[in-house]
Design goal:
five-stranded mixed β-sheet, three-stranded antiparallel β-sheet, alpha/beta, 22% strand, 306 residues, Arc Repressor Mutant, subunit A
């Protein structure tokens, strides 16, 4: 039994006339008759009574008529669902998060992706700016966020903005940094990130003018450690402006009011995968959320800064 047999059956029943049914189905009357005969033979029942007034359903035909309509409707729904699935993204995404989830607006990003692509499920995995490129290359992530420049030739970079930075010191050091120059605060203890972190580039930029580098340094490799060490009055450091404002409002930090270089924030993914529909959907959602330019910048240099 073919669906077109059922479609012909229903149309003949609705029209009550072979000629009108053939016109509605854009086929010939003999073809309509042949399809009805084939269906009757397959089902083993007579569907119509041929009368001078036209084609009238038999008692068996009336019972099967409703079932045939339900079957045709189910087939239509199946086609509609299949069409939507062709257009709808289905799958999972692994997104590397290089800093605290609140700053990256993970909740809002998840809700936006869910609203646009209900069958696309993002997973947010802890990473770092120094690790994200290798994790992408080893297929541990599909995309990731990172601070600082990315000049890797195999990466596609979507700039999301410039992050304002501040130098923050323990609250107890307020008098020591008030009105102090960069040269003077360089004499105080500092909390530094390791060279693999883009924050380290900020220290280099901050002291590139010939200012003597701080002599007393405590090394750490993430922002949580920096915040904890400032709170413990170990040293001062460079942090995001929102972290600096939080430190001041919570009463454990004080800002130095000199100029501090900013730092870029980017979404990165492998260039060879950047045109995959799921990654395009992620990029568009991130750009919407961050209000970034829709232009995607691809760095062409062969060197890279993790």
């Amino acid at each position: 039994m073919e669906l077109y047999h059922l479609k012909t059956f229903v149309k003949v029943a609705d029209e009550g006339n072979l000629t009108r049914a053939s016109q509605a189905l854009f086929t010939s009357q003999p073809a309509i008759s042949a399809q009805i005969k084939a269906l009757e033979e397959e089902l083993g029942v007579q569907l119509f009574s041929r009368t001078p007034r036209g084609m009238l359903l038999t008692q068996s035909g009336r019972q099967l008529y409703e079932q045939a309509k339900l079957t045709l409707n189910a087939a239509d729904q199946l086609r509609i669902k299949a069409s939507r699935l062709r257009e709808e993204l289905v799958g999972e995404l692994r997104v590397g998060m290089h800093t605290d989830y609140e700053y990256l607006r993970v909740g809002e990003l998840y809700q936006l992706i869910a609203a646009r692509h209900a069958q696309l499920v993002p997973h947010f995995l802890q990473s770092s700016s120094g690790r994200v490129l290798n994790e992408l290359r080893h297929d541990e992530l599909d995309a990731g966020f990172m601070f600082g420049p990315c000049r890797a030739a195999d990466m596609e970079v979507t700039p999301l903005g410039e992050v304002e930075m501040r130098i923050i010191a323990p609250k107890a050091w307020a008098e020591r940094i008030a009105g102090a120059s960069l040269e003077q605060i360089a004499q105080l203890p500092w909390v530094y990130t390791t060279p693999g972190c883009p924050f380290y580039l900020l220290f280099e930029a901050l002291f590139e003018s010939g200012t003597q580098l701080p002599r007393q340094i405590v090394w750490c490799d993430n922002e949580d450690a920096i915040r904890t060490l400032i709170r413990a009055e170990v040293g001062l450091s460079v942090v995001r402006v929102d972290d600096a404002e939080r430190a001041v409002s919570e009463g454990y930090g004080v800002c130095w009011h000199g100029a501090v270089p900013g730092m870029s924030i980017n979404l990165v993914m492998l260039k060879q995968r950047a045109r995959e529909p799921a990654l395009i959907a992620l990029r568009e959602s991130v750009q919407t959320l961050w209000g970034a330019s829709m232009a995607v910048v691809t760095e062409s240099e062969t060197s890279e800064t993790a």
